[in-house]
Automatic annotation (TrEMBL):
EC number of this enzyme: 2.7.2.4
Binding positions for ATP per the UniProt entry: K7, F8, G9, G10, T173, D174, R184
Family: Belongs to the aspartokinase family.
Annotated pathway: Amino-acid biosynthesis; L-lysine biosynthesis via DAP pathway; (S)-tetrahydrodipicolinate from L-aspartate: step 1/4; Amino-acid biosynthesis; L-methionine biosynthesis via de novo pathway; L-homoserine from L-aspartate: step 1/3; Amino-acid biosynthesis; L-threonine biosynthesis; L-threonine from L-aspartate: step 1/5
Role noted for this protein: Catalyzes the phosphorylation of the beta-carboxyl group of aspartic acid with ATP to yield 4-phospho-L-aspartate, which is involved in the branched biosynthetic pathway leading to the biosynthesis of amino acids threonine, isoleucine and methionine.
Chain ranges of the ACT domain: 264-347
Alphabetical UniProt keywords: Amino-acid biosynthesis, ATP-binding, Diaminopimelate biosynthesis, Kinase, Lysine biosynthesis, Nucleotide-binding, Repeat, Transferase
Single GO term (MF): ATP binding
Keyword Nucleotidyltransferase: no
Name of this protein: Aspartokinase
Cellular component, GO, one term: cytosol
InterPro entries: AceGlu_kinase-like_sf (IPR036393), ACT-like_dom_sf (IPR045865), ACT_Aspartokinase (IPR054352), ACT_dom (IPR002912), Asp/Glu/Uridylate_kinase (IPR001048), Asp_kin_monofn (IPR005260), Asp_kinase (IPR001341), Aspartate_kinase_CS (IPR018042)
Catalytic activity line of the entry: L-aspartate + ATP = 4-phospho-L-aspartate + ADP
């Protein structure tokens, strides 16, 4: 008898009918002889609805109260799913993050899991019950409810799989696996049979919403056998694993993109030893997450520094820079909103020079202007006008031959 963690996302539990469908999937697994821990998200778009209710009251809700509010969404689903299983004669117990022993750092709205007391779940499993755990939430050592960041139910599932030493963790969602890029945006996107932890981590961090980045981090660190598959269609999904098979070893394996990027330029800062560190430690101290950084030394005395941020942080970043203007000694700030980031990812880049050049050429042939660039061993990211984003993804998908991946559609 094995132990399986199954996670069902918002769309998969979006109605009473779908919750009953999930109950049937769980029952199939139980009938196969496995013990099951189920992690669920809030129903449909209910987390978004809760966010919008809060914004009807205040523009600046406290993070503590937001966590209190958003964590209710998952609690609705766990109880309904437990009832659906009980109705069919199966013993099931619903558990909030706290009841499941999920402890986090004391950081509201984007907490990291710090400790998992597995006995709280294993006790129920030993009694023959199906444990149904609320995703996306935990509790601090001071008994404060926290959430793990949007999309964080994936992380709950993988963390439980790691902590309980499960045989596998299946993420059931509204697509049939991880695709070469978002199949809702590029219709030529192809499902990958497998992808490495490192590539998946880059894609997730660069905007591929199919998996929460910290879920992939956990899976890699604890070597969790992780699969993404459909909750609605019986089809093999995508395995996320350490190494992927040679025949699929493409140079570029996937494309990710995100909008709401803003570029900020801090102009004419003194070009001295501590200038850069002062600027970025000031931003970090104010919780401003900086992405790509470019420095242009215009002459020996002055330098211009540009960096990208999420557009949501623009007003806050400008305030922080203005407040510290005299200490940082810059002359002027310029910024450009309405940008996006398009990235290519693939482990094959390590041993194939020229991939970045090829990417830039494809974009320039289309008249798409690149405003910023950053690279790692296995990715190249470009910042472009938002209006060029979808076109850029489409032409890059074609240029790197991603529509021609062979993925046999095998029934599970
Ligand atoms: P869930 O509610 O099940 O967690 P999400 O909406 O968080 O589902 O994630 C699934 C969505 O991720 C898909 O509907 C798809 O639009 C999006 N997505 C983005 N990039 C990819 C990709 N590379 N492969 C598959 N889906 C992707
Ligand atoms: N319900 C949360 C969200 O919508 C967590 C999740 O679905 O993973 O972000
Ligand atoms: Mg998700």
């Amino acid at each position: 008898m094995g132990l399986v963690v199954q996670k069902f996302g918002g769309t998969s539990v979006g109605s009473i009918e779908r919750i009953k469908n999930v109950a049937n999937r769980v029952i199939d697994t139980v009938q196969n002889g496995d013990k099951v821990v189920v992690v669920v998200s809030a129903m449909g778009k209910s987390t978004d609805q809760l966010v919008s209710m809060a914004s009807g009251i205040t523009k600046k809700p406290s993070n503590r109260e937001m966590d209190m509010l958003l964590s209710t969404g998952e609690q609705v689903t766990i109880s309904l799913l437990a009832m659906a299983l009980q109705e069919q004669g199966y013993e099931a117990v619903s558990l909030t993050g706290w009841q499941a022993g999920i402890y986090t750092e004391a950081c509201h709205s984007n907490a990291r899991i710090s400790n998992f007391q597995e006995k709280k779940i294993s006790k129920h499993l030993a009694e023959g019950k199906i444990a149904i755990v609320a995703g996306f939430q935990g509790v601090t050592n001071d008994n404060e409810i926290t959430t793990l960041g949007r999309g964080g139910s994936d992380t709950t599932a993988v963390a439980l799989a790691a902590g309980l030493n499960a045989d596998r963790c299946d993420i059931f969602t509204d697509v049939t696996g991880v695709f070469t890029t978002d199949p809702r945006v590029v219709k030529e996107a192809r499902k990958l049979n497998s992808i490495s932890y490192d590539e998946m981590l880059e894609l997730a961090n660069l905007g591929a919403g199919v998996l929460h980045p910290r879920a992939v981090e956990f899976a890699k660190n604890y070597q969790v056998k992780l699969t993404v598959r459909s909750s609605m269609v019986e089809e093999e999904g995508t395995m996320i694993e350490e190494e992927v098979s040679v025949e699929e070893n493409l140079v570029v394996r996937g494309l990710a993109f995100e909008s709401n990027v803003t570029k900020i330029s801090v102009c004419n800062m003194p070009n001295n030893l501590s200038g850069l560190s002062n600027l970025f430690t000031t931003l970090a101290a104010n919780n401003i997450n900086v992405d790509i950084i470019i420095q242009n030394v215009s002459d020996s005395e002055n330098t211009n520094i540009s960096f990208s941020i999420h557009s949501e942080k623009l007003a806050e970043t400008l305030d922080v820079l203005e407040e510290n203007k005299s200490e940082l000694q810059f002359e002027e700030i310029r910024y450009e909103t309405g940008l996006s980031k398009v990235s290519i990812v693939g482990s094959g880049m390590i041993s194939n020079p020229g991939v970045a050049g090829q990417m830039f050429k494809v974009l320039s042939d289309q008249g798409i202007f690149i405003k910023m660039v950053s690279t790692s061993e296995i990715k190249v990211s470009t910042v472009l006008d938002q209006s060029d984003m979808v076109k850029a993804v489409e032409v890059l998908h074609e240029a790197f031959d991603l529509s021609n991946i062979k993925t046999p559609q095998v029934n599970a």
